[in-house]
Amino acid sequence: MNAEKIPDIIIGRLPIYLRALQRMAERGVQVTSSKELGEQVDISAAQIRKDISQFGEFGKQGMGYNVAFLIEKLREILKVDRVWDVVVVGAGDIGHAVARYQGFTDRGFRIVAIFDNDPEKIGKKAGNFVIQDVAHMGEYIRREGIKIAMIAVPASAAQEVANELVEAGVKAILNYAPINISVPEGVHVQYIDPVTHLQRMTYYL
Question: Which domains are present in the chain?
């Protein structure tokens, strides 16, 4: 399977299926159907079958999907059958919230460090972390082999931070800054800007 050949929109739905399946498993559900899963995530059964079949045959006609097996396979596909170390850049409100958030580890991610350039913040605590000087960030990322980072800095600083992250070897960036950043091919960026999502919703109001 060539990961680049699978449309990104399909990859984007897999974590939604995984989350719903994990909730089913918590309730003791052992077998589910694409129809039942579709009702949980508001996606058609046909679309779910089509998406999952891109990666192999994980269910039997008329028998449905084994929940535990499908969870295991989706975790493998999304490469969250291991724990990825993540650094956070920016110790403002968002950076602090991310550092304190407890929901990453059981879903494949572990925050390991938070960086900032403000002398007033460096050395202080954010959650369980001591905020480190961004001047040491590149060295830390190289030494620890970090591949994932979150950017939670002002828009004006985001591109410069992204450049430093990429140069240090980061391959995946979650960007909270309200600006699009340029990265080389082979580096993936996802954007979280609540305002754009709100603007998308107000269209329907």
Answer: 3-77 (1.10.10.10), 84-197 (3.40.50.720)
